[in-house]
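SAMPLE LOG
Freezer: B-3
Tube label: C17
Construct: single chain, 104 aa
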Amino acid sequence: MKHFIVEIDYLVPLARIQESVPAHRAYLQLGYDAGLLLCSGPKLPATGGFMLARAESLEQLQAFFLDDPFSREQLARFAFSEFQPVKRQPWAEDWFAAPSAPAD
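STRUCTURE (predicted):
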């Protein structure tokens, strides 16, 4: 499993972003339910947001975010930075642990 910081930068005024926040958060819940996301939240000041994510590949993660309302409505741009987590809190170990490889 690969790990990523996802950075969102708003492209429109905050008032327009706020109209789509409920749909954006509902969409993110799909990522949480699928185990793609560990945490997410807005930047302070509110110019975008950050997420901690994982996926089999960058392409898989990018494909997921193409359907995010912020992306579909061209309200924000998404940037993906892959990183290798070498230290972590014990309570997060299960999320960071790589799943076993599929059998051939």
